[in-house]
Queue: 2 jobs
Job 1
Amino acid sequence: MKKTSPDLAGEVTPEGELEEARLHHIVGYQVAQAAISTIASFNFLVGKEQKLRPVEFTILALIRENPDHTLARLAQALAVTAPNITTWIDRLEERKLVKRMQSSTDRRALQIRLTPLGAKLVAEATTRLIEGERKVYKNLSDTEFDTLIALLHKVAGRRTFN
């Protein structure tokens, strides 16, 4: 087994205990590792019980906060293609969580809105996630938790690199 230099030793993966070495200093790697934990947390808190995937929750939550926007705008916000967002909306519509409506200002455009069932589901899921994440991530102080949220929001906002 190859030994890492002393300045890179000591940090290991949370599971499997593999040496991270230089990976420890790469934001994308740490975000990906954190995603494993956050997806497991999501599934524990709401996903399994409400048969909801993280992307579905995100779509429902964005629609709740921004009713009557187009699929194109939603796709842009999530950095996905039009066919991808259409597929997700189709699935949510089949579950009677969202509905498409013709735009009152542009007859060619469709707007998206939550159904009462979708509104109830996303409200309950949001409450459970906000309350539950504080318990799941109890290894973080309140200040650390708030700082983590703020820093991740900053990282997520950096989508162009000119």
Job 2
Amino acid sequence: MKSMSRLVVVGAVALLAAGQFGCASKDPGAAEAPAKEAAAVPIPADSPLAQITAGMTEVDVRKILGEPTQTRSYMTGKAWIPYYYGADTARTAWTYAGQGEVVFSRNRYTGGLSVVRVDYNPSVK
């Protein structure tokens, strides 16, 4: 029985050392490939969206841009992490026709909104 246990332990160690057994798979090409991100369109200086900065509240944005054409809310992935006590678990996006979108983070404790991203897209309806 002891020799069988030792054989299993030695085999497991050998597999771990060879990289064939474990939590993460190793893809030789994965490390070298850069992550592809969507290219952000620069906001023109004459656009009202250029006045919006990260951290602004919804009141500040309404003073500059007025009421949005559309709104949508969604949960972030952080909402599903057990024992995550941070505030950023939901997002709200305000769309302005012919201008783009302002994305807010909703603080789960206070309910307040603060700007996290501004996406310029003049073709938005």
